[in-house]
Amino acid sequence: MCTPIRSNPTSTLSLITTRMLEKQPLRQRNTRKTYVFLIFSSLFALSIYSIVQAWVPFWILGPKIDQQSEPPSTHSASSGRSTKFQLKHVFHHGTGRYNRVHRRLDITPEFLSTHENTLEELTEAIYAQGNEHVDSNSADSVMSQVGISRAFGGQNPWSAELEIRSSERPARLRRLKERHTPGFLDSYLRYAIEVKGDPKKLDGIGLEWEPEEDVLLPDIEDKDSVVALALISSNAYVRLPLSDDEKKKSDWIDVGDPWDVDEEHPDINFGWLEDGLRGHVFVSNDSKTVVIGIKGTSGAGLPGGGSDETGGNDKINDNLLFSCCCARVGYMWTTVCDCYEKTYTCNQDCLEKELLRQDRYYQATLELYRNVTKLYPPETTDIWVTGHSLGGALASLLGRTYGLPAVAFESPGEMLATKRLHLPQAPGLPRHMEHIWHFGNTADPIFMGVCNGASSSCSVAGYAMETACHTGKICVYDVVTDLGWHVNLLNHRIHTVIDDIILKYNETAKCVDQPPCRDCFNWRFVSKDDTEPDEPKLPHPLKPKPSSSSVAKPTSTSSSKPTETDKPKRCLERTWYGWCKKWEGEE
Fold first, then answer.
1. Cβ–Cβ < 8 Å for 236, 387
2. CA proximity to 295, closest of 208, 176, 405, 394
3. What are the CA-CA distances from residue 41 to residues 36, 47, 74, 346, 399 (Å)?
4. What family, per the record (predicted)?
5. Which residues are catalytic?
């Protein structure tokens, strides 16, 4: 008798479990791959989204713009050292017939307390002047307005403290070893002009350059620091809180050569009574860093410009530094030097000597710096220079001469003046190690080099601003694209640049190398004692160009009389439409 087989529940369950487990690994592997793929895909998508969100607005719109202008914040993302600066000295260097006069006014606590009431009245007047209507079509009217920036926060510009942050890392810089030796640079510059900047002859001097050393720089990527430097440039325009009688008193200290009273100079009234160059010196609280702010151009001969402004010589030096040939724009113009020869032809040697004259602003700038170094030795002090407009160009020339960090605001192109002066430059020095920065905006015709032409505001006022090329790096705010501005001379004013441009942007303008640029391309510069031929004449645009095809010359001599084969043939028979069917002599 067969006994039926009973199934064991335990064994059946184990069998099912075993079969399920045999199929499970494949399913688990597929599921695991799917999860891993989804995780990595999500992470990749998030990373792409973050990059696009961060960079696309910058590429399309540029730096972000604040909706409202706000005073500089006291905090910055940079990790450099932050230091407060205050005005300590005012230097004035005479030019023209007073070029030997050089004086210094110390801004001490006693000076501030003595003129406290006058300073308050002057500050109110300056802030009020910034709101006055200005004729945008008059260059003199624009340049004579002293208005002060709102970034001062209502402070007295003579006692305000400005905070500047240094760069996180010191920069490497090479400078002339004998740059502070008395008379060395002057003799070099004179020799460079005598040899017309011949590289072979200048290399024969054997200039000694110091090895690269660490130099402290201002942080030009920090908006607050850029605003502070611009305020120092603006401060150089502020008038002294003194009456004409007080200016003659003993507050001024002579730091130049002894001044002898004679018939031509019956007194030594100084200060703002005569034309000259002005520099305001700001010193850090620890006296380890000095910033020199060089005054720019003041309007000449206008109500509001003031008899104590330096406008007369400012215009002369503007036209000498930034014109192609002594401001010879047309036959109606009065030139500032006698280097013009004929139409679009200028004497190069004459131009170079004019720039180096003792009564011009470049020499005055060198003397100003040398007197500052007597108070603050460059061996133990970091010295920076800044300025606006003409002052910015002079700051750039001074920085290149002595190897100083220079920050210029809305300066005209100074590359032409740099070449004419043959300023020394370390061999093989790349542009990023020059440490010269030019801040400007696309709506400023002077900075962009377009304030020229017979109908321009500059030409009408007698300014020949014909240069556009800068040295070092340019940091340009594209306000025409970002803010919809139009090109206008009002956008050249320093307080407009600070309040309506720099403070409007969340970030400072990106600094890039100057693109390839050439000024005065249609001029011919000659030298009377050149041993080499001058540059070829430029072709006349209205005359046809000569043919570039060559004509084959005969290899053998032949008679000039025509032969029988040279005589033209006569047509004997033509078709109805004029085609010759039979020529004379043909069978």
1. yes
2. 394
3. 8, 10, 43, 69, 54
4. Belongs to the AB hydrolase superfamily. Lipase family.
5. 389
Burial of 441 (0-12, 13-18, 19+ CB in 10 A): buried
| CA angle 134–140–142, rounded 5-degree value | 35
247 within 8 A of 241, measured Cβ to Cβ: no
Query: Which 3 state secondary structure label does DSSP give 494?
Result: helix
For residue 529, the one-letter residue type is D
| Dist CA 193 CA 384 (whole Å) | 27
| Rounded-to-integer distance, Cα 174 and Cα 208, Å | 10
Answer yes or no: are the C-beta atoms of 336 and 327 closer than 8 Å: yes
Q: Is the pLDDT of residue 541 over 60?
A: no
Give the rounded distance of the alpha carbon of 212 from its chain centre.
24
Q: Where are the domains of the chain?
A: 82-256+271-513
Question: Taking a C-beta distance cutoff of 8 angstroms, is the pair 502, 476 a contact?
Answer: no
**How are beta strands 473-477 and 382-388 bridged, if at all?**
unpaired
- 328-352 tens-digit pLDDT: 888 788 889 999 999 899 999 999 9
Question: Structure pTM?
Answer: 0.75
